[in-house]
Amino acid sequence: MAGAQPTGPTEWSVEAQPFLKAILDCVAQPVWVVDHDGLIRFANPASLATLGYDDLSELEGKPSHETIHYKHPDGSYYPAEDCPLLRPRATGETVHTEEDWFFRRDGTMFPVSYWSAPIDTPDGRGAVLAFTNTEEQRRAERAERERDIAQARAGEARAAQRRIVEAGDLARRRVTRDLHDGAQQKLVSLVVNLELARELTASEPQHAAELLEAATQQARAAISELRELASGIHPSLLTTRGLRAAVEALADELPLPINPLDVPEMRLPTVIEGSVYFLISEALTNVVKHASARAAGVRVVVTDTKLTVEVGDDGIGGAVFQTAGHGLAGLADRVGALGVTLQLESTRSSGTILRADIPLPEADDHPAR
User: Fold this and answer.
1) Which partner from 26, 155, 210, 232 sits 20 to 30 angstroms from 259, CA to CA?
2) Where are the beta strands (DSSP E) in the chain?
């Protein structure tokens, strides 16, 4: 009877009962019949097994609704007069429900879909019910959804990993180019001047002294460029004095006020300090470039178990992670390596708040300073 759609009353004569019973006993789908009073008069073996009963005598004569349908899934009482299962007795209509819940003998609930159709019995119009336990179907659908989610997350992780690798390659090329075009050129000139000065020390001491002075200035310039380059890779203040000092120095260089600037002075694990610093740095860079903001703010709150970072501004809003050129995807990848998801609140004309919750390791796991 699976998929069947009864359309009207069926006469169940006394003579037909044994024949119909024999047929229904062979049907794999659970089927039962209730009389005009809603009492169970027949249940085939499939329905008995599904409901956890051993014999029809354990169900026969019991009220159908109060036996298998007396509560909603949330546990609230389900009045019999509201039950569509028994409606065909009164209206003669056929009822179909794709999602409902029945009770087994042991009180456990299970999901079902069912058809309930009118049937004429010797005592008046009753209803014949064919139902399907949908637990396996739901389990399969849930497993499929979980698999799809897992595949999507794996795809996102692969894409993020690819972006991190590409960003690392780009950063290495940029460092190589900066070294070649900056400090390396000064160091080459320094070596040339030193060699010339050595050759001219005896014959042209004044010129040699001038060359040594030029070499000294080139050495200082190269050191300055190397320090600046190293600061872009990992600020020395972050290493020596921690996150607060590094963020304060960063804020001093920006063309807009950072208020509040609330960063605790406590030291944190190196990987977390670095990730939080560059998250704040990139977020503030986005504010300066794209937000048309008059001011921004930074808050870092540390608890026993996590660190929360918030970077906000009073700009034009409307930022999304997919906005081209905003660098937010790179930010998401950076903190994603720590198992963190960025949260973005950015309403048009109402500014933007970027937030991340970063789990902290146990205190014993913090590196010694």
Assistant:
1) 232
2) 31-34, 40-43, 95-103, 109-121, 124-133, 258-262, 296-302, 306-313, 342-346, 352-359
3-state secondary structure of 8: coil
| Residues 112-121 as b or e (16 or more Cβ within 10 Å = b) | bbbbbbbbbb
Q: pLDDT tier at 343 (50, 70, 90 boundaries)?
A: confident
Percent of the chain at pLDDT > 90 equals: 17
If one counts every other C-beta atom within 10 angstroms of the C-beta of residue 214, the result is 17
Model confidence pLDDT, tens digit, residues 20-54 = 666 666 667 898 888 888 898 888 898 999 999 99
**Full DSSP string of 215-252:** HHHHHHHHHHHHHHHHHHHS-HHHHHT-HHHHHHHHHH
Give which of 94, 91, 43, 93 is closest to 68, Cα–Cα. 43
pLDDT at 184 over 70: no
Strand order in the sheet with 95-103: 40-43, 31-34, 124-133, 109-121, 95-103
